[in-house]
Amino acid sequence: MKRLLIPMLMAATAAIGASAAMPVIKGETFPDTDGRHINAHGGGIIKQGDTYYWYGEHRGDGSPGSGQEGVTCYTSSDLRTWTDHGIVLAVSDEPGHPLERGGIIERPKVIYCPATGKYVMWFHHELKGRGYGAAEAAVAVADNPFGPFELLHSGRVNPGIAHANLPAEALTKVWDDKLEWWTPEWHQAVEEGLFAVRDLEGGQMARDMGLFIDDDGKAYHIYSSEENLTLNIAELDPTFTRHTGKYIRIFPGGHNEAPAMFKRDGTYWMITSGCTGWAPNAARLMRADNIMGPWEMLPNPCRGEGADKTFQGQSTYVYRDGDSYTFMADIWNPKNLGDSRHLWLPISFDADGVPYIDSPSNSK
Ligand code: DGJ
Hints:
8% helix; globular; 22 strands; binds (2R,3S,4R,5S)-2-(hydroxymethyl)piperidine-3,4,5-triol
């Protein structure tokens, strides 16, 4: 029986596509097949057939004047050797174009939409000349994974629609918008919906972001909103290109960025960072039984040397392959963002099923 079972299991594995093991990357240079450090930051990986696609921010090459050209795509068959396919969503040199060069494209994530057969990219988008003020979520689509991705729209999220868990009183309350930031009164007002109500009409701010596809095929957009103070989880429609209007706010005033959501044995997990610009800080871990909440906060998931600064990294994505989960993070180099390094560490689970990440010195 054993002799029969092993070939049968091997055949079954081949039929669903063999999977490669994710390498551990500890911030060393990660060269592509042309020998250049992989310029795909704040991104994520999807697998289609036997090919892995890694999308991320192009951040210039460090030479004077070089900047963001758009979003890059690299492919691999083993997760170790990556081939550069260039820019798949490009900035524009046309004045007034929504993607005009000089704007900001951050944290692009690509998913495949079975309902439309299209590849859908969401990213945090800032308009030229406005710093981080526009705080828009943008969507681009392509017929194939190498693009070119075409911008569908860019804007704030769910204008005119209140979050499902915004207390009803928030909508009728008279807000004091002169409250001094960081005072206890201001914190309380933020929690109660000060900024969610301020932005209700024009739509919610959307900066650092991730996407998540649930077991039932529904997709969600998770983003830092309300001046980066509050996370939002917003359901997408079956084309994955629009919000349905069903969304929640979590940890109001909690100052979370860099959300990376994953699911294991029916539990939703999310790793985020605090907000300290390009500088590293301690990661946060949160969990929920229902993606629409309630969510609860757990202690820092990182362990060992450097855990209080996420080993110098900031979360971008959790890559899942069966029961294997990898924490993907960026070690930012603000002086030369293109040379920011990649940190890929395995996620382990303790006896209670709570995820943790061991320090690079303990990871292999
Ligand atoms: C932290 C964010 O996570 C990054 O994506 C980027 O927006 C930097 N802040 C800019 O300071």
